[in-house]
Design brief:
Layout lengths: L14 E6 L6 E6 L7 E3 L7 E6 L8 E9 L2 E2 L6 E3 L1 E2 L6 E5 L3 E3 L4 E7 L5 E7 L4 E6 L1 E2 L5 E7 L8 E9 L2 E5 L6 E6 L6 E3 L5 E3 L3 E8 L5 E6 L7 E3 L8 E9 L6 E8 L5 E2 L6 E9 L4 E4 L4 E2 L5 E7 L5 E6 L7 E4 L1 E3 L2 E8 L8 E9 L2 E6 L5 E5 L14 E3 L17 H5 L2 H6 L3 E5 L2 E8 L2 H7 L2 H16 L3 E3 L7 E2 L12 E6 L7 E11 L11
Parallel strand pairs: 8-17, 10-18, 18-26, 20-27, 27-36, 29-37, 38-41
Antiparallel strand pairs: 1-4, 2-3, 2-5, 5-6, 5-7, 9-11, 11-15, 12-13, 12-16, 14-15, 16-17, 16-18, 19-21, 21-24, 22-23, 22-25, 25-27, 28-30, 30-34, 31-32, 31-35, 33-34, 35-36, 35-37, 39-40, 40-44, 42-44, 43-44
């Protein structure tokens, strides 16, 4: 019978080849393909059925195809099946990346790009894990002088992990490979509820400051992953619970530099499952201070305007600028963007705010950027404070908060502390009705709002289509404490607690049982808000 040799991929400096046969072998021979002479021979030290051939230091010329056979008193055996020895490491490792992204929707396809500047004309892709496999493709020349191979992968499913490496080699030496690329793991994104992603610093960050991104959810994910548009890294962190029902992970990114500008998303996962949630809404980070210019910001009607007037903020620069951005201090939303216009050798953009309401009051800055690096901004302009005059009562400094627009423009009457709004008034407001607000009680200019947050099964079965989408988006943004939701026409302005209180304390959660479905547990969100009656037509300070 022919002896059996184990398949071996040689990755180190020494290796042993072992052959095993039936008893009675008196001598073992080892042949290497392409070598006319016997490569090695061994005699067993005693009666036996095994022999070991050693390579003490692997070199390129050791790569190849080997067979062994043995002799007995009656003759020689057949040769074994070939054993392929591959030497890795003589050349530098190629790069392995996923196009367009290492994040793939469950059931989707992706292209893996293996590339190198060393002129390889063959590339090999290996998949690690229980279903280990490999594929080889010819290399193609790229415009920048590299060679690459594009490996289609898919459909990608969450049943197991998708981890890959690739190698480069030359056609005339097919068993001498480069060092392996760094591993690339695909993240399989599913349909479970998306988490929220935010940064305490706001969308415009300054070079040199420490940056941390926070991914959190009420679903109770045990781990979170972060991705950046165009990037290949997918850092993962375990989740922790800052308070009941919520889970989050912090992603410290270090000191801010040019590499931090861009769009980010995060994902939540459970345990060891290879499936992740749907992606969060994108978080855009803009790095200020990388262009030497500092634009100027002015207001055409003066810094004090009356409600209902039109006002234009003018941002100008003497340096080439493709886009201007207008940022309001403390605002959670992204800065406004306008393409620049060239006039008399200067670049400018006019930001129109009309009609002016109390919400427009605050401190503004503008920045410039180039189309080649849209996430890298100039130095900020000098701050411009816009005061909305003619409002009754003392002015409040602008603060980051939650804006709810219900389409109901009636002004609530001034009520004594603890007086509850009648249920019929709530039913007139489409957003409140959709969310199923249970109670709104007032204490002067303070409201305490109770909103039921249903379990996942209830939301999926009771709320359909756009209502379900709006409900989930509002819930995500409410927990983030920095959203601005607009539905129908503008009506009411809510902010967190007044000055002196924590600017953005998270809401408290309470549980109750559904009367219509006793086995269904309802989750109620209770959060205190401050009502600025100056935001209502004809409003008073209360």
């Amino acid at each position: 019978m022919a002896p059996a040799l184990p398949t071996l991929l040689c990755l180190g400096l020494s290796v042993g080849l072992r052959t095993q046969v039936q008893a009675g072998a008196q001598e073992f021979h080892l042949d290497k393909e392409g070598n006319p002479d016997l490569w090695d021979r061994q005699k067993p030290p005693g009666p036996g059925d095994k022999a070991r051939f050693s390579i003490h230091y692997m070199r390129d010329d050791h790569a190849g195809s080997y067979r062994c056979y043995y002799g007995t008193r009656t003759g020689w055996s057949e040769r074994s099946d070939p054993l392929q020895l591959v030497v890795t490491g003589p050349y530098g490792k190629p790069s392995l990346s996923a196009l367009p992204s290492p994040v793939v929707m469950s059931g989707g396809n992706v292209t893996l790009q293996c590339a190198s500047s060393q002129g390889f004309n063959r590339f090999l892709l290996t998949k690690e894990g229980e279903d280990e496999s490999s594929r080889t493709l010819d290399g193609q020349q790229t415009p920048d002088g590299q060679t690459q191979a594009l490996f289609p992968v898919g459909p990608v499913t969450p049943g197991h992990r998708w981890t890959f490496r690739c190698y480069g080699f030359y056609r005339h030496t097919p068993r001498v490979w480069s060092a392996p690329s760094d591993p690339l793991e695909l993240l399989v994104s599913g349909l479970s509820w998306k988490p929220s992603l935010l940064t305490p610093q706001g969308p415009v960050i300054t070079s040199g400051q420490n940056l941390t991104l926070q991914c959190h959810s009420d679903v109770g994910y045990t781990r979170f992953a972060l991705s950046k548009e165009g990037g290949q890294d997918l850092p993962q962190h375990p989740g922790w619970r800052p308070q009941g029902g919520l889970s989050q992970a912090d992603f410290p990114l270090g000191r801010v530099g040019t590499i931090h500008g861009g769009q980010y998303r995060c994902y939540g996962g459970h345990g060891l499952s290879s499936e992740w949630s749907a992606p969060s809404e994108p978080l855009e980070l803009l790095v200020a201070g990388w262009l030497r210019d500092s634009p100027s910001l002015s207001v055409q009607l003066g810094p004090s305007v009356a409600p209902g007037e039109n006002v234009t903020l003018l941002c100008q620069s003497g340096e080439r600028t493709d886009t201007f951005l207008l940022s309001k201090e403390g605002a959670a939303h992204r800065p406004l963007r306008l393409r620049s216009q060239s006039q008399d050798g200067r670049y400018q953009a006019e930001f129109s705010l009309s009609p002016v309401t109390s919400a427009h009051g605050g401190t503004y800055r503008c920045y410039g950027s180039l189309s080649t690096d849209p996430y890298l901004l100039s130095q900020p302009s000098e701050p411009l404070a816009l005061v909305v005059s003619g409002l009754e009562g003392p002015q409040r400094s602008p603060r980051r908060g939650l804006e709810l627009s219900t389409g109901a423009l009636h002004r609530p009457e001034h009520r004594s502390p603890g007086h509850e709004l009648p249920a019929r008034e709530l039913q007139e407001e489409p957003l409140l009705r959709m969310l199923g607000l249970a109670k709104v009680s007032t204490e002067g200019r303070h409201l305490k709002v109770v909103k039921p947050i249903y379990d996942k099964h209830t939301v999926n079965t009771v709320l359909k289509g756009n209502k379900r989408k709006a409900f989930l988006e509002l819930w995500d943004k409410t927990v983030a404490c920095q959203a601005r939701l607009s539905m129908d026409s503008p009506g009411r302005f809510f902010t967190p607690e007044p000055p002196g209180e924590p600017e953005c304390s998270l809401p408290s959660l309470r549980f109750s049982h559904s009367k219509t479905a006793p086995d269904t547990c309802l989750l109620f969100l209770v959060f205190p808000v401050y009502v600025d009656y100056q935001g209502f037509p004809g409003g008073t300070s209360g």
